[in-house]
Each structure stands twice: as C-alpha cells, then as structure tokens.
Automatic annotation (TrEMBL):
Belongs to the glycosyltransferase 2 family. This is Dolichol-phosphate mannosyltransferase subunit 1. It is found in: Endoplasmic reticulum. PANTHER family: DOLICHOL-PHOSPHATE MANNOSYLTRANSFERASE SUBUNIT 1. It comes from Pleuronectes platessa.
Length: 250
C-alpha cells in the first residue's frame, strides 16, 4: 500500500499514476530511471506504479528489471514483457492494459525524459483538468540537448510537415513524454492504427479531432548516454506513410 502523507488535503486520495516504460536494450539506463522515478513519486507523495514493457532485449534488460522489482516491490514495479521487438506503439498499448492507475504517464526509459518534470505534468493536469498533458521541446524553456543536425532536422521536419498537413495545434507532435487520463488513452488507442514511433503523432492528432483538452509542459530532452536510439530509416518511412494516411483520411 501507498505510504502517502495524510497532511496533503489538496490531493485526491484515489489518484494513481501508472508509468509505462518501454525498453529495448536499456540495461544500463533502467536502474537509474527507476530510482529517479521512485524518488520523485516518494518526495511528491503521489501514488504510483511503474510498468516495464521489455521486448525480449538481448542485453538482459528483463533480468535487471527483475532485480529492481525485488528491491522496490511488486506493487511498485510491474513486469509485462513480450517475447520480441514488436514496436513502441504496441508496447504502450500492451502496458496500458495492465495499468491500475486512473492516470498514465508515457516516457522513454533511456533518461532522455527526466522524472523531475513529473510533478509539473501532474500540476498542469489538475490546473485545467486536461485530458492529456504533453511534454514539449518546442515551447518555453523546452529544448533538445545532444542531438546532431540530422536528428534535429528529422524531428523539426516531422513536426513541421504534420503542422502544415494536419494543423493539430500542439507544439511538439512527436514527443513521447505525456500524461493521459486512462480512459482518454484507452479511447485514443482504439482509434490509432500506427505501431511504431509515428504513434505519438497520431495520438495527438486524434486527441484534437475528438476535442480532448491538451495542456503542455516545457521539457528538456537530453540525448541518451548509454545505448543507441532505435529510430532508423524504417521508422522515418512509416512516419511519412502514417502522416499521409492521416492526411487522406481525416
Ligand atoms: N518495448 C519496446 N519495444 N521498447 C522500445 C522499442 C520496441 O520496439 N523501440 C524503442 N523502445 C524504447 C527504448 O528502449 C526507449 O526507452 C524508448 O522506447 C525510446 O526509444 P529510443 O530509441 O531511445 O528513441 P529516440 O530517443 O530515438 O526517440 C525519442 O524521440 C522521438 C522523437 O521525439 C523518443 O522519445 C520517441 O518516442 C520520439 O518519437
Ligand atoms: Mn532515446
């Protein structure tokens, strides 16, 4: 059970935050991100669980996750692995099905998304009772650190093209540090067709179509130190396909 503080009357006692952490070869990063998450939730007093969705990482990420589960407890760390690499979009869907929280955080496990922003997401959500709160690298104090020019151009280009074609009116369409009301996430996921990285973009476009309210929190995205990005040429092609499909069908 949660050891939440009873001296915090402003907090809705039933709110629980499920954090979905998709992993593929994140052995070095996982202990640190989990430690930071536990620290952040413990200090802020919000109830939480962390769901690790590992896709059969050959580097032994799952074994590391099992160790972390022993350290922090089975009520805090849930393991929902899949046998092989089936893509980022479906990893979130898989994790979501096992979430017990009424709110769901989606974030990367490679420390590019720092848990220190989590209280800001939660406060922003409460401030406007937003259906979703999106971390943005492209507004306010947000930013990207450590990417080369190629990667910056890919991200900016993807955002620019999507803005022009679909006008979703959000400043970061491809980012993946977000907080959703669980029922909103479920509803959106049902309508989304994409499986890979393009999923994030489709989610926010569909959220606008359904007139869900979107809050934004500036975040800094810091490129990973350990391991490699899984974004390759294939993902760029499927992004372009996804974008055109959305353009043609909405
Ligand atoms: N389970 C699972 N299965 N996890 C995966 C898979 C997969 O097929 N592919 C990637 N991941 C995990 C990684 O282990 C990491 O925790 C997270 O998903 C993001 O993957 P990265 O490979 O680190 O992505 P990135 O840094 O290139 O891309 C980031 O920026 C993009 C553009 O803003 C991510 O935040 C993307 O979601 C984002 O679209
Ligand atoms: Mn990354």
């Amino acid at each position: 059970m949660a050891n939440r503080k009873t001296s915090e009357p402003s907090r809705d006692i039933k709110d629980r935050y499920s954090v979905l952490l998709p992993t593929y070869n994140e052995r070095e990063n996982l202990p640190l991100i989990v430690w930071l998450l536990v620290k952040c939730f413990t200090e802020s007093g919000y109830d939480y669980e962390i769901i690790v969705i590992d896709d059969g990482s050959p580097d032994g990420t799952l074994e590391v996750a099992e160790q972390l589960q022993k350290i922090y407890g089975e009520d805090r760390i849930l393991l929902r692995p899949r046998a092989k690499k089936l893509g980022l979009g479906t990893a979130y869907i898989h994790g979501m099905k096992h979430a017990s929280g009424n709110f769901i955080f989606i974030m990367d496990a490679d420390l590019s998304h720092h848990p220190k922003f989590i209280p800001e997401f939660i406060e922003k959500q409460k401030e406007g009772n937003y259906d979703l709160v999106s971390g943005t690298r492209y507004r306010g104090n947000g930013g990207v650190y450590g990417w080369d020019l190629r990667r910056k151009l890919i991200s900016r280009g993807a955002n620019f093209l999507t803005q022009v074609l679909l006008r979703p009116d959000a400043s970061d369409l491809t980012g993946s540090f977000r907080l959703y009301k669980k029922n909103v996430l479920e509803n959106l996921v049902e309508r989304c067709v994409s499986k890979g990285y393009v999923f994030q973009m489709e989610m926010i476009v569909r959220a606008r179509q359904l007139h869900y309210t979107i809050g934004e929190v500036p975040i800094s995205f810091v490129d990973r130190v350990y391991g490699e990005s899984k974004l390759g040429g294939n993902e760029i092609v499927s992004f372009a396909k996804g974008l055109l499909t959305l353009f043609a069908t909405t």
